[in-house]
TrEMBL record:
Membrane-spanning intervals of the chain: none
Molecular function GO terms recorded: nucleic acid binding
Name of this protein: Poly(A)-specific ribonuclease (PARN)-like domain containing 1
Any one GO biological process: RNA metabolic process
Family per record: Belongs to the CAF1 family.
Entry superkingdom: Eukaryota
Length: 261
């Protein structure tokens, strides 16, 4: 089963259940490259100790990115010796581009040829890859979100969000308190970015995310204060939800590590 960003969130409970019930798991990772052209002291040698080989390989592969993870979860069949049921998934991944995070990575021609040879789907990788981040990136974005230091990084997102703010501002001039408008086709991280920027820029509106729609409602100042401090939408709680979504596949991977299968 192929799993991309569109399917990941709804598949997560089942995946967690399968991992928890598995006797062991098998893992295979595809990268956009494996061996960078390191200087001679960093090149892998037959005389390297295992620890040296690992450190050199790790340094080399960090210049590339994970594009796919294959995972098979094996559960023993009760009453059957050495027989297992296997559940297999292919996860297409793409680095998180959210707020201050904008990863850079390389492609290696030989790795691209290898992936092409075995029918790798680059559209699923580039267009529907599940976001993920490492621990260092997670610390940075958590610090940024929880402190309210928010900025939209890419110029494309800035242009798109400017259009949204202009649209909402024009609507506000004619809207009455309680009126609402819908911004369609906004999902994922962009939906969070749009809401963060709108809430910061306009003190007399409130936003709600519903599937691929952002609903904007005109409210009074007291109502805005109440909504910000309501138990179901406290700013700290809301930002934790944003962080959870930004972590993406990292949530599942950390759960996989904890399971120690």
């Amino acid at each position: 089963m192929d799993v991309g960003a569109d399917e990941f969130e709804q598949s997560l409970p089942l995946l967690q259940e399968l991992v928890a019930g598995a006797d062991f798991v098998g893992l295979d990772i595809e990268f956009t490259g494996l061996r960078s052209n390191l200087s001679r002291p960093q090149q892998i040698s037959l005389f390297d100790l295992p620890s040296e080989w690992y450190l050199k390989t790790r340094q080399s592969v960090q210049q590339f990115t994970i594009c796919q993870i294959g995972l098979s979860m094996f559960s023993s069949i009760e009453g059957e010796s050495n027989k297992y049921v296997a559940h297999s998934c292919n996860f297409f991944l793409f680095p998180t581009t959210f707020g201050i995070l904008d990863s850079e990575f390389s492609f290696q021609a030989s790795s691209v040829q290898f992936l092409n040879q075995y029918g790798f789907d680059y559209n699923k990788f580039l267009k529907n890859g599940i976001p993920y981040m490492n621990e260092e990136q997670e610390k940075k974005i958590k610090h940024s979100i929880l402190r309210g230091n928010w900025r939209v990084r890419s110029s494309l997102d800035k242009d798109q969000i400017k259009v949204v703010i202009d649209k909402v501002t024009q609507w506000l001039d004619l809207a009455e308190e309680g009126d609402q408008m819908t911004l369609p086709g906004i999902a994922g991280f962009q939906a969070f970015e749009v809401q963060l920027v709108l809430r910061q820029a306009l003190p007399n509106i409130w936003t709600v995310l519903k599937e691929e729609w952002v609903i904007v409602k005109k409210v009074s100042q007291p109502q805005r204060w109440y909504l910000e401090h309501a138990s179901c939408d406290q700013v700290s709680c809301w930002k934790e939800q944003i962080l959870l979504s930004a972590r993406g596949f990292s949530v599942f991977f950390q759960m996989l590590v904890k399971a120690q299968k």
